[in-house]
Design goal:
There is one protein chain. This protein is mainly alpha-helical. Helix content is about 65%, strand content about 5%. It is built from 13 helices and four strands. The chain has a four-stranded mixed β-sheet with strand order 1-2-4-3. Strand 3 and strand 4 form a beta hairpin. The relative contact order is 0.13.
Length: about 375
Amino acid sequence: MAQLDPSTLFPAGLLARNARYADVLTALWLVGVLSQLAALVLLVRRPPRFRGHRLVQAALTGAVVYASVYAAALPARTAAHWWRRRYDVTDLGYPNALLGTWTLTLGELALATVTAVALVAVGRLLGRRAWLLLWPAFAVLAALFILVLPGLLAPRFEPLRDRRLAARIQALAEREGLGRTEIVVRKAKERTRAVNAEALGVGPTTRVVLWDTLLEPEVGRGEILFVSAHELAHVARHHTRLGLWWFCLLSLPVVWLLVRIVRLGDPRALPRAALLLLVFQLALLPVANAISRRYERQADRDALALTADPAAAEALFRRFARVNLTDPDPPRLLHALLGTHPTLVERISLSRGAAPPGDPGSP
């Protein structure tokens, strides 16, 4: 399928604005990553020293490593929020933007502390064979995160009160062979004007989550049905579960190399372990994003087949450009490295090659 010319799809002003907006955010992301790397290098050169039991030292060192990485990225995060406010993507104040997710931050801090203790304990016990225990432990932790997260987020969700819309989305779910599916709404307006939806969990814990920004009167019902069908396709194709398998596969050589390079039994080696994990994560990012783009393309195809409404799909993709300020046609190399979805131009090209519009989602 031939790709369309971006200049025939979007005004030149929109293309220039969105490219500028995305370029600055990408630059700030890079600054944040480099700052984190620099902080970890400093900790490797001068690791923190604590007294007491080895595992107590590990816990305190893990907390210091997390706090250092968090603080190193904070200036770039603050600048990125200023940039989003400047482009009216959000009007959230700085305290709420930077501290509003404090429960998540505390959870990450606790996880970093526990992980540090586990690395030292297992490294002390098994030495270079520690990967035999650490790799399945990381896999179990990832699985629990995927399964437990929807339950932890449940208080932030509300039921979809539009019964007619809920019935139409449920009809799409049944056509996908999913049976009864929970459809909820996330309160996003207070944080962003961007429109989005997501699928959380696997199996019985799965929820299709619509952001409340999608439920504004100006958003067409066809667009909401398409994005819902897209998320239902992720569930039907078990993309979350497949993503977990990919994590297990890619993490195996990472854990093996980590054990070979770092003496995990020594708490002072934890900054080096964190540095290597960040480097490995960045190295694998293009692979992970390529997998993500493939799954997103599959979900688009399935949603187009399910709704038979390519016009609504294209309207949604155009809304992403207008409201979310997504760059419709980013530089090819940058997109290959960092893009998690096909470009908007690619997605519109796909929608224009789909079947003629219809309305099979009616209850």
